[in-house]
Amino acid sequence: MKIAFVCRRMAAWLSSVIILMACLWTGDLVSVWIGHALPGSIIGMLLLATLLGSGLIRLSWVEVGAGFLVRWMSLLFVPIGVGVVDQLDLLANSLGALLLTSILGTVIIMAIAGWLFQWLERTQR
Amino acid sequence: MMSFPMYSISPMKGLLYCSLTVAVYLIAWKLQNRFKHSLLNPVLISILVLAGILLAGNIPYSDYQQGGDWLSNLLGLAVVSLGVPLYQQMREIHRELPGVILVVFVSSLFALVSTVVLAVMAGADGQVAISLAPKSVTTPIAVMIVDNLNGVPSLAAIAVILTGLMGAIFGLPLLSLLKITDPKARGIAMGTACHALGTARIVQNSLQEGAYSALALVLSASISALLAPWLVPWVLSWIS
């Protein structure tokens, strides 16, 4: 019983990895083909959603790996952020503009996007 | 000091820095779970701790990068994985797609214009303003936009990460403060303003919000890539 469980689990992981990689590779190919107008990973995301939606791929085939990656996605941004140590001069020179745009800019954009959509939802009802 | 040939030492270094990054992140994540304070954002803490270690130990970033790249390379697969929550909300999203596209279009336009204006107000020159303009867009697209406009791609990467951190740390309380309570509106606001890093945070909160965030992330990346090449130079010439 236990062995069957482990085997099923491993198969679910294997199929997740294969499908996710296939989507990413296809996305990368399409990305090159359309002159990098969108990154391959984003095309791969749309492809995966479409394949799941059309029933060609079952949710249970990708659920394990995709769920794991989505849960730990934040970790994957850490090395890019650490890259800041190579750019300390650049960071110091434009610190004012960086802080103002990232703090105030984020508040403004969130407010516009959120309020506009909520307003649309309400008027449509 | 003895110097080792690169090829024999690099896999060990890669493994070392990769596991160090994971370990620091796990500790930071445990800390946040324990104290529940949003300033204890695990991404921010990990970046500060690891950057501190590199600076204190005089370790060049290129050494760390060997291990860091192992993790960065997984980012592509993680973005593809966002297709799952997107699919799970597809039936509902399908009905609202025109509204979502309209909202993200207006917000992305505003994002590009307001960032350039704010940057110039803060005393930035044209090249810096261009580099900050696509800060709300996911890193690869932002770097591409800035590269095409002759900005500084590495500055763009910093701006993108900083904006994403803003969203990951203050995004959820900010949305509540702005009285944005509808889960769809919350997702769209996060995805449009704070790209994948904000999406990674909000998907932990709710899969529905995460799905709308992922959708907004895709749309804002494509719309900004289309708008920025002519809009950013136009705004710059208009205000200076």
UniProtKB/TrEMBL annotation, chain B:
Pfam families: LrgB. It is found in: Membrane. Keywords: Membrane, Transmembrane, Transmembrane helix. The chain crosses the membrane at residues 6-27, 39-58, 70-87, 99-124, 155-178, 211-232. GO terms for cellular component: membrane. The keyword Transmembrane helix applies. Its main location: membrane. It comes from the Bacteria. It is a multi-pass membrane protein. This is LrgB.
